[in-house]
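User: Could you check the structure of this?
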Amino acid sequence: MTFSKILIANRGEIAMRIIRAARDLGIPTVAVHSTVDRESPHVRMADEAFCIGPASSAESYLNIPTLLSVCEVTGADAVHPGYGFLSENAQFAELCEVSGITWIGPPPSAINAMGDKIRARALMLEAGVPILPGTPGAINDVEEAKRLATEIGFPMILKAAAGGGGRGMKVVERVEDLEQSWLTCSAEAAAAFGSGAVYMERYLRRPRHVEFQIVLDQYGAGVHLFERECSVQRRHQKLLEEAPCVALDAETRKRVGGLCVEASQKIGYVGVGTFEFLYDTDGSMFFMEMNTRIQVEHPVTEAITGIDLVRLQIDIARGAHLPFTQDEVPGPFGHAMEFRINAETPDKFLPSPGTITAYEPPGGPGVRIDGLAHAGYTVLPHYDSMVAKLIIHGANREECMQRARRALHEYRIEGIATTIPFHQRVLENESFVRGEYDTHLVTTM
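Assistant: Sure, the predicted structure tokens are below.
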């Protein structure tokens, strides 16, 4: 099976990444764009491009009827959603299937199963994946919350059942603060996700954030492609990722990765996906959520395995079998890091939209850049602030860090503030250099 054309229901860096993978496979692509994105690099790179609405995401990149209409007009018989926007929207995936369009991603049933965090916890518990002590369902009122919190123990964390990306989360240290935190979290969840349902979990004070990349084909075969360390965060938003995680041993990697694959098989998962865990100081790992899409940080896995994950996504959607078993998965080779270059102030992470007046990317061994930045490019205030991803690979972690220092020193972006100075500080931080850090690293720097 092959595709006539792939419509990319996204923009920017990930749209360009998908176009490149499709072009390697000889498949034409259709880009979509808002009115303010007309000059974006992904528009010029694609074989065809269609304007789908004004700057507002709700009226353009999130407009499902318009996206389906573009498929019909162009003859696109496959849709790749990338990450963000509609990438985890089961309704869009289902409408594509009903319209005879291949969704390059998991089936709607799997997206639904993992999109509801309460249901996902129950499924993972059934599959034998360790989860944090918490409520079995959504909390209905404050009194119930207080009773259950006493059973779970403090500190605990409130989370949006339909949430993700760090939104709709509140840490509660004592029962006196629970009522206001619950009301605030529920309101934030309703505003961000359309559902005010909230559940509770035990809060770990000093965890690492570790995630496993899994891939399954349409025939039930699956593998994991090792793990990524994602503990460098601000406000629960990732800034830097590395692979492999220096805290994990081979036995833990094999055991947890295997559990992730088995759980994916039980829910009928197809394609690439990511299991996110909290890794406690005693070596315990607890499931947080599953992302049913390609991740921003997928290049670090590509760097240590040599596998093109986006191309593999497309191949699996076309009906291909996995090209390897777990024992045949290449790697992990060396060490890789990804630095998110955001248009933000490097101290308080405030947005810094504007026009890039000068742009000189780094080069040399072990350096890869995925992005859309160039001199004259305008970073718009309407969308995500990431303008590039700097991916570094080395024979080991020490070489990787040294190459990263060199590359960040070379990297020149003028006209806007960026997170480059922040990353330079991380690479000089003693805890990070030793590999002995957790999700609180940024707040302690």
